[in-house]
Structures are given as C-alpha cells and as structure tokens.
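Appendix B, example 12.
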Amino acid sequence: MHAKKVSLDLRTLYITEPGNLLNHMIGVQLEGEAEHGHGHGHGHGHGHGGGAGGGELRGTIFFDRNICSLNEWGDRTVCTKMAVIGHDARAVLMADADPLGHGRRLWNLLVDGIDDMKFHLVEYPSAGLWYLVVNAGDKGSATAPLFPRAAFEAAT
C-alpha cells in the first residue's frame, strides 16, 4: 500500500438546535497522508475502497456559535457577530474494522484545548461522504454530516 495526499475542507450545514454539538456550525480543514483508499486530492475527501491502514491529518477545526435566521433554502441570513473559534486538530486513522461491514474508516480527531469531549471523523468511501461524531460524556453524543465547503460558496 502507498500513502496518498488527503485534503479535507468540510463543514456542517447550519444546525438550528445544536444539542450536544454545542455549535451551530462546525468546519474541518485537515491535510496529510493516508494509506491507499483515502481522499483523491480534490478537497472532497472521498475515498476508494476500505481496509485498515495508517494515516494522519493535521489542521484546524472551527466552531461557530452564531445564531442565525434561515431563509426558505436553509441559507443563513441575519446572524449574530461572535467570532468563529479555531482549534488546532490532528486526525489519526484507527485500525478498527467497521462493525456493520460498510467499509467506513474511523479517524480519532484530537482537538487542542478541548478535553471534555471526544471527536471522531467517519469516512464513508462508498457513499462519498464524511461525518463528525461528538461524544460529550454524560451529556450524550451527536453526529453531523460534513459537506465540501466550496459547495456553499457563491459561483463567480
């Protein structure tokens, strides 16, 4: 197996009731290398195939607590003006096999400065998607699908 470059620039949709995610939007920008089967370098993070392998990504996770109004498309319109908080992050590919046999890959997401929550990224190559899993201990867990950030930028 050989390592491939992986570049993720993903974010959640606006989450009206964030619950255990504690934020209305979360973004993930990570780069690194992973064994064959991860990302194809187009910023989408889609993989090809499954199986265990090594990998490490580094970058930033962004937390946006701004409260927004939404239009009929689900687009944010009027929002509060709190700063978006960025934390250095490192994702490490775990060797755990997908318990449901779907070929998903589990990444442990280590976030600097946050010790009371556990984060994981789940790569789902056959579906072409990633999602975030947040475990807030006694407060419970939550998941959020991640989408390419570029999909939300206006076409020029």
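The chain has no helices and ten strands. Residues 70 and 76 are 5 Å apart (CA to CA).
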